[in-house]
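Quick one:
INPUT:
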């Protein structure tokens, strides 16, 4: 019944992802900020894969569902969904993905640092890599293929970057699709330049603290200023933003397009 309010239809539940994600903290703020918490709405913790399979099931039966969503991500390619307007700007006006390194990385490894300063792609290129991985390709293979198919970009990112001569670069990432994509692509380019790159997967909190205390060098997946903002605020004295590697990101809530009466987070309250 399209005239029934959306809350009861979705059991006043937003389907989310893993607890450590910035989007989960932002969504808790949104629940309070839009008066949804006060109406007993809740955020369900799961994982990107579980959330997407819930979404897929709902779409198959044309059932209503509200999910946490972000771009770049293949979910917008695969499913007919739309972002809900966020008039209070709780998820930020516009997000970008930044590269963040430990303090001292530039001094210790100016070559790799220069590469990360020059590494800048966009949601389209990144989306292609993520989609290939989603389709089941091995992320390292996808990275190699990307490098082969984008010599111009790779040349720009590596311009003036000296040979690594086996110098180590310790990358860290959370196993989110965007981080898997950018970490594998940059690691492979650096390996091709003679650097010895390690990639260590961990949760978001330990990821940031290991960069802060210098046991990791760099991450290419800081969603700023809002989504990873609390972690950045916590560690900002021990880390350094190298630059933006992907502008034009977006974070928020989304619903299937057939939920025609729901276009803003405000509409969930009705
Ligand atoms: N994300 C994708 C993550 C970062 C990458 C937006 C879901 C988050 O911290 O929320």
């Amino acid at each position: 019944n399209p005239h029934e309010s959306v809350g009861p239809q979705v059991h006043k539940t937003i389907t989310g992802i893993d607890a450590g994600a910035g989007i989960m903290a932002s969504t808790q703020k949104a629940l309070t900020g839009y008066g949804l918490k006060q109406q007993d709405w809740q955020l369900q913790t799961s994982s990107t894969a579980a959330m997407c399979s819930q979404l897929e099931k709902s779409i198959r039966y044309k059932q209503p569902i509200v999910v946490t969503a972000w771009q770049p991500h293949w979910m917008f390619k695969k499913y007919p969904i739309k972002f809900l307007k966020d008039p209070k700007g709780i998820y930020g006006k516009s997000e970008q993905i930044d590269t963040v390194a430990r303090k001292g990385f530039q001094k210790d490894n100016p070559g790799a640092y220069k590469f990360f300063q020059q590494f800048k792609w966009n949601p389209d290129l990144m989306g292609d890599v993520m989609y290939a991985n989603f389709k089941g390709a091995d992320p390292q293979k996808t990275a190699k293929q990307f490098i082969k198919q984008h010599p111009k970009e790779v040349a720009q990112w590596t311009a003036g970057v000296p040979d690594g001569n086996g110098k180590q670069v310790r990358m860290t990432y959370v196993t989110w699709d965007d981080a898997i994509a950018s970490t594998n692509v940059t690691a492979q380019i650096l390996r091709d330049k003679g650097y010895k790159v390690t990639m260590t997967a961990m949760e978001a909190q330990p990821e940031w603290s290991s960069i802060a205390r210098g046991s990791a060098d760099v991450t290419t997946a800081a969603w700023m200023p809002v989504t990873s903002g609390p972690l950045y605020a916590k560690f900002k004295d021990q880390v350094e933003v190298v630059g933006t590697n992907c502008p034009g990101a977006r974070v928020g809530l989304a619903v299937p397009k057939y939920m025609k009466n729901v276009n803003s987070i405000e509409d969930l309250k009705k």
